[in-house]
Every structure is written in C-alpha cells, then in structure tokens.
Amino acid sequence: MNELERIVREAATLVAERSPFLLATVVRVSGSSYRRPGARMLVAGDRWVSGCVSGGCLEGDVMLRGEHRCRDGAVVVTYDSTTEDGETWGVGLGCNGVVDVLLEHVAAGATHDALAFAAACFAEETTGTLVTVIRSTAGAVRVGARLAFGPPCALAHPVTDPAARSAIEAAARGPAGVVELDGLGITVLVEKIAPSPQLFVLGGGHDAVSIVALATSVGFRVTVAGPTIRQASRFRAADRVVSTGGAADRLRALIDAAAEPYVVIMHHQLTPDRDALAVALASRARYIGVLGPARRTRDLLAEIGHPGDDPRIHAPIGLDLGAETPEQIALSIVGELQAVARRAQGGKLRARARPLHARVALVVLAAGGSRRLGRPKQLVELDGAPLVRRVATTCVEARSGPVGVVLGANAGAVARALGDLEVAHIANDGWEEGIASSVRAAVRWAEASKADALLLALADQPLLTVEHLTALRQAWLSGAPIAASRFSGVVGAPAVFDRSRWDALSRLQGDQGAGRLLRAEDVAAIDWAGGAIDVDTADDVRALGGHAPANPPG
C-alpha cells in the first residue's frame, strides 16, 4: 500500500483508541524539496506514527512545535531554506527550497476529512479529487476547509460559501496543484487521491517472496495468485494469496477489478505461464512482465496466437542491474515496475540535466476551425471516442504534469467531448487568427501552472502514445531545449519546449507554427512513425475508419 493508505490505516487505529493526533501536509513547494504537495505525516503526542514531510529536515520541528502552532485551528507554516534564516526554526534545512506545511490537530475520537475521503476512494478502488483551502483572506472560508469530489463522504469542515464553492468546483475539474481563486483571496491545493497500484504476482515459487516484500514496501498492493499456492505463509507481506485452481475467468476478474493493475508471471512452468499470459493480455493490466529469456516469451505468445506487439509486455523482465540472486532480481523487477508506474526511464539521475521534480505542462491544440474537412475534426470518432478526447487522455496518462486543451471553434462541443476528463479548458477567443494564437494561449497557461517545460500536441494525431510522450520528456530532461517528433522526413508536433524558448513561442503570429524553432540545430528529434497520420480531409477520416459528425454541434 502507498504512504497515504498507511496513514489512513494508522489514523483509524488512533480514532478507535480515542487518541488525538496531528496531521501535517505539504501544501506548496518552491525550489528544491524532498517531498511534493500532498505528502503527509501522522503524529500522536510526541510519537511519530507514519509518513514524512521532508527528508528529515522538518519532522523534528513538526513533532516538537506542531501541536502548539495549530492549537487554535489549522495553520500553514512556511519553512524557508533559501537563506540562513532557516536556522531560526531550529532545524537543519538542506534542500534550498521553500516548503509550506499545513498543520491540523484532530481531537480524540474524531476523524479527519482528508483521511476519511481517502479511505472512501481506496474502498471503492477509484480516484477522487480533494480540494483544501491553504490560504484565505475571506472571513467565511477557513484554512483547512475542504470540498471532495468522488465517493460520498461527509466532511466536518466543508466550504460553504457559495462563491468559493463554485470556484473550487471549477478548480477541481482541472489538474492537481496549487490554484489561486481569482478575486476571492483564497488559495487551494487540488489533489487527486488514488488507490495504490496493484501487483499480481502469478506464481508462488521461492523467488516470488522477495518480489512481494519489496513491491509492498515501495507502495504496491500485492496479490499472489496461481493454480495452487503451497506454503502461503511465506507471503505474509502480500495483501492476499489466491489459489485460482486454474480458473482463468477468476484471475481475469481479479486483475480487471483493480484501478491500476500490473502483472508479473513467474510460475517456472510452460503451461501455467502460457495460460497466465493469455489472461493478462486480455485484461486491463498496464504492465505484463514475464520471467525468463525473450525467446521463451516469444514461444508462449506464438502458442496463444498473439503477434507479440503489445507494448505492455516486458520480457526479459526488469532493469539491467547485473542481478543474480533472488533479492537482486526482485530489485531489478520492482525497479522496472516503479519506473513504468511513474512514466520514468529508470536511468541514472546524474544523467539528467533538469531538476528532479521538473514538470512538463501538456497542451492539446484543439481550437481550429477544420476548414479543409468542413466539420470539426476534433470530434471525429475513432473506436468510439472523439479524437480530442483520445489525445487528451493519452496526455493525462503520461503523468508528466498538468494537461490543458485550447478551445476555440466549436468550443462548447469540444468541451463536452472531453467530458469529465481532468484537463484544464484554455479559452482562445482569437482562434481565427491561426495556430499562433493557440500557441500563445498555451504558453500563458503553462506560465500560470509554473511548469518548467511545455509540450504541444495536436488534437488530430490519433496514434499518439504514452511511450512517445515519455520519450520526448526524457530527451528534454536530458538537456535538450526542444524535443520534437520526426516523421516522414519532417520534424513537428508533439514537441517539448523548455521554458527558455517560451518567449520565442509567444512572439508567433498568424497561422505561423513553431516550424522555425523546430529546425534549429539543438532540437532533439525523436522518431515517431505515427506522426504521419493526421486528420485534415474526408479521405483521412475514411482511411482511419473514423466517423465525422454530419454537422458541427453548437
């Protein structure tokens, strides 16, 4: 389970014991910091219980002085390590950053709103949105008040002011992060509360024990499953151990019930490995790792009649760490699982040129009038989903930072096509000028989001993948000022632009895209054959097997 799940569990024990406690939450960070907004720490009296808010710099002060500071109500304390003044806190801050921590006292037997809502999200295996007031000059709204969107949950300290509620509801529909509510004197933290990813270890051999223990320790909930599991007591670290009796339907149901499932196959026997691989490929699993050499996996895929082109398949499994022992192999496998879950490459951090927590704002340009097609190409349906939603969903799943969509022509219909997707709607009333107006709108939004780089994608690129977006981000993290896509002999979108290039983007005019910037010598070009497929004409729609709406919706 992840850190928040552990805190929820420990807090429930304290509530049952009628013990008061202190909850500390990182709500804003500027500069370098060990933890990010949403990190929490649970303290009971002078006893640390679970979680942390730094790498050890702040915990002592929170434990010693936190209770005193919030005795009159929730309060945000700022720890500034950018100057020598940080020593006045009596802690050795070594992060060279500014960290705001929300301190809240919870009385004996009472529950905490954030933890109660998180518990509801975990129980229903769903993601919810929690919005917390972290600054307020409005008398009707207190620091620590919240609104929650997701599973039903009664809040002890909800936001009741109508204007604030309306603004918070709008903020909740956008990406996670700190949001200033314009004109209200209120700042909020928007969090996406999600259950831990679930790892299904299919096979109960002795080498699975190390994988289960390590995966559990880094935040996965783990299920060990197989036709027959002998000596289940070896897997005490697992959340559950299941003997399926070879019932494929039961195994598939377990995997598909998880919000974020990952699968490792390691029976060490051909038949159960083959059957498990078939089930995993038919499931919602985001990752399918198969122990053993690549040739063996290719043979298994051939037996079940699968071409083997599924990007979820990882065989051989794991990172190249020179692993030999079961414990080392477990480290290799769980390291790869963590990298895939966080959309990271698993390389050495010293190879990165960008900060550890650098964020990329991803913007889908969807404001155009589709003059060549004659109908809104953003709404062309492919496999039952409008193109704009397909592309925006891929950007969200890349987990690189906040996601926005620029709206202009047919803004209402395009917004409806996005539905409840957690993306910001970026208005571009001057869309008729051309694509430059949308690029400028994207830059303004990225600046407001305090991102370090901006990725521009087009709404009519149906073959866009998370893997390609991750490769572009990785090229930027490695130092490229611009990382762009190369296809059919050209370099184009999607492309990542470092903040240092935003001024040039902001000077674009008319129907001028970023082509001149993309032709510079310092651009890192990442090959992507899918970029050759876009939607401009009716022939393009027919070639994709898509469906264009007969009339532009209003």
TrEMBL record:
The lineage of its organism: Bacteria, Pseudomonadati, Myxococcota, Polyangia, Polyangiales. Keywords: Transferase. Pfam families: NTP_transf_3 (PF12804), XdhC_C (PF13478), XdhC_CoxI (PF02625). This is NTP transferase domain-containing protein. SUPFAM superfamilies: Nucleotide-diphospho-sugar transferases. GO terms for molecular function: transferase activity. InterPro entries: MobA-like_NTP_Trfase (IPR025877), MoCofactor_Util/Proc (IPR052698), Nucleotide-diphossugar_trans (IPR029044), XdhC_CoxI (IPR003777), XdhC_Rossmann_dom (IPR027051). It comes from Sorangium atrum. The keyword Transferase applies. Residues 15-80 form the XdhC- CoxI domain. Residues 199-337 form the XdhC Rossmann domain. The keyword Transferase applies. It comes from the Bacteria. PANTHER family: ALDEHYDE OXIDOREDUCTASE MOLYBDENUM COFACTOR ASSEMBLY PROTEIN (PTHR30388), XANTHINE DEHYDROGENASE SUBUNIT A-RELATED (PTHR30388:SF6). Signal peptide: none annotated. Residues 363-521 form the MobA-like NTP transferase domain.
